[in-house]
Amino acid sequence: MTGAAGSSFRERAEVQLANARMRANVAVAVDQRERGRRAIFDGLDHAGLVGAAQAIRDHTLARLDRYLGEFARNAEARGTKVFFAADAAEAVGYVRDLLAARGVRLVAKSKSMVTEEIELNRGLAEFGAEVVETDLGEYLVQLAGEAPSHITAPAVHMSRGEIAALLSRRHGRRLPEDPEALTGFVRGVLRETFLAAGVGISGVNFAVAETGSFVTVTNEGNGRMVTSLPPVHVAIMGMERIVPSFRDLGLMLPMLVASSVGRPVTAYLSFVNGPRRPGEVDGPEEVHVVVLDNGRSAILRSAYRSVLRCIRCGACQNVCPVYRQVGGHGYGSVYAGPIGAVVTPLLQGRDRAGDLPFASSLCGACDEVCPVGIPLSGHLLGLRADAVRGKGLADPETAAWRAWAAAWRRPETYRLTGLVARLGQLPLARGGRISRAPFPLSRWTGGRDLPAAAGETFRARWERRLRRG
Amino acid sequence: MDRTAFLRQVRGELRGTRAPERPPAWPATPASGSARGPAAVLAFLEALAGVGGVGRAVARQALAAAVTAAAAALPEGAGRTAVVAPDTDAWREAIDAGLAAAGVEPVRPAPDGWREAAAAAGMGITSAALGVASTGSVLIVPGPNTPRVAGLLPEAHLVLLPADQLVPGLEEAMPVLASLADRSSAPVLVTGPSRTSDIEMVTVFGAHGPRRLEVLLIG
Ligand code: SF4
């Protein structure tokens, strides 16, 4: 997967920690997104909404075979071709054959996580096709040969100066360091791509079983372009991306968009009901949907099934203290942040990404924001337990965690650890932060500050409040 | 992979799983609404303004003047033509008079001329099937009289919508979308102009689609 080959989370994280500006930009982006999320749910029954969304997802997952069958039948009845792919190779092969049969060289693509998961661009490039990403941020990171640093703000690690230099270099003309002018320039370049491409490729945010329809969600409108202008449209979806009916979208769409960007809807909620109908003026002559398993069915049976509820909103990343420090690049995987740390080892195999579940402070912030109620920190713990079960007690980290767990299980010893922490930190804390700590804590404070433990414990404060009444 | 084998594999992994019921109802979402009638018009205009769109409630007699104002606001350098979708034929006289007063030429291309004409046009004019009061969204339904490109390629998109076609919230638009599955290949809910904030989180309009979106609620 993206740039991950052979390196560990710690190695990649150290590289990213050196990139101070990336960290600052990611922090600004995630804070802005989280503020927006909070504001839009303010005054609404968030827990009630999450409960309903979770029930819809669990209901669908428990009958996934039936809903997938229904989706395929209804999509085909409206002229869409549906292909079921067991793995990445089958999915990429299907698209490649499609390009070959039509002699297509230029592909316009809108942002899709699942196509990154199957490394579709590489697979098609090897075959000689040019695949152009059309989401502005994705286009920029593709041009720079980099990976997206944030799920809804892929180029947030680049400054306007860098973007101007990059575009100027690639297009042989001097462009001003102005977001509006730069966006306008890219609009012109990509407009030609949309009109010239032989195939448009998109992801699928939700597919609807009752009609065989599906929807893409964008602000830029590139999803609408990709699904409307080229003569052939191919949509690729993870097999869990389904809802039973349009009615469910009345809840799921706002939950996705609000959790992602803090708005009720995006600029374009673009539905596809099949290829252009007789009499319609425009639209693709062919629509294909590739339904991908690629390790998902095995998750259905496991204790981790609820990760398949995920609607890829990115809210868990925006509140994650680890993500904030290392950004999307640090994970070395397509799916980053808490959801990435859970789903990547499940999809890729624990031998390849087994260290990701350890890239978390288990603070639980992700659990609170997830619009479909995935117990992310619980799953992280479960994956750690699975990993450590193979290691045994000889590992010093295992021994330390066991001691910690034992201590925190009993109130007396719990209070004792808090006292030790407050006394032990006295020489280290400056202004409420600890920037330097002795080994092994130095591995933590080398990259970030540790908030000093509060002078008074929560328990003590709570008891005082109770006394006050 | 063979479809039957694929689905059989999924079924096998699910053996013994009980499906929870889907919720019969849920609390208000960020896209829910309750406004109807004149209150819906106000809610719609406010929501649309909040995402950088322009909305106006106009009486039918004032439609030509509103079209003139919309055409006069075309961005500098935009083409001085407006492609007009046949789905607006009920308002044809007012549209043509309004455009003429702003010096913008109406174009009604033949079916195979739409793409080129829309790409060159400063403005595309279409109708909408409904509007969502809580979000300021309009539902565009492509078909024989509504080319997709009309609202996609020009610099500005002018949408005409009878004011009594507003629904309170997104949930109320869903049955309509479901019923369109057999009638249109690709309906779209459009909310404000195309936009991006991918460069340093600065919002810029006109990422790919129209830079300017104006909705006239005709009462
Ligand atoms: S796990 Fe939850 S919060 Fe994270 S991306 Fe998925 S749906 Fe969003």
Low-confidence stretches of chain A: 1-5, 392-396, 412-455
In order across it, which strands form the biggest sheet of chain B? 1-12-7-4-2-3
> Shape of chain B, please?
globular
Give the terminus-to-terminus CA distance of chain B: 55 Å
User: Taking Cα atoms only, what radius of gyration of chain A do you get, to the nearest Å?
Assistant: 24 Å
What is the overall shape of chain A? globular
What is the strand and helix layout of this fold?
The complex is a heterodimer of chains A (469) and B (219).
Chain A lengths: L8 H10 L1 H22 L4 H17 L1 H14 L3 E5 L2 H15 L3 E4 L3 H5 L2 H7 L3 E4 L2 H9 L15 H12 L7 H18 L2 E4 L3 E3 L4 E6 L3 H7 L3 E7 L3 E2 L2 H16 L6 E5 L13 E7 L3 H6 L13 H4 L2 H6 L10 H12 L1 H4 L11 H5 L6 H14 L6 H14 L1 H14 L4 E2 L2 E2 L7 H4 L4 E2 L6 H11 L1
Parallel strand pairs in A: 1-10, 2-3, 2-4, 4-7, 5-8, 7-10
Antiparallel strand pairs in A: 5-6, 6-9, 11-12, 12-13
Chain B lengths: L2 H11 L24 H13 L3 E5 L4 H10 L8 E4 L7 H11 L2 E3 L6 H7 L2 E5 L2 E3 L4 E4 L15 E7 L3 E2 L2 H10 L8 E3 L4 E2 L7 E2 L6 E7 L1
Parallel strand pairs in B: 1-12, 2-3, 2-4, 4-7, 5-8, 7-12
Antiparallel strand pairs in B: 5-6, 6-9, 10-11
Helix pairs in contact in B: 3-4
Bound molecules: iron/sulfur cluster.
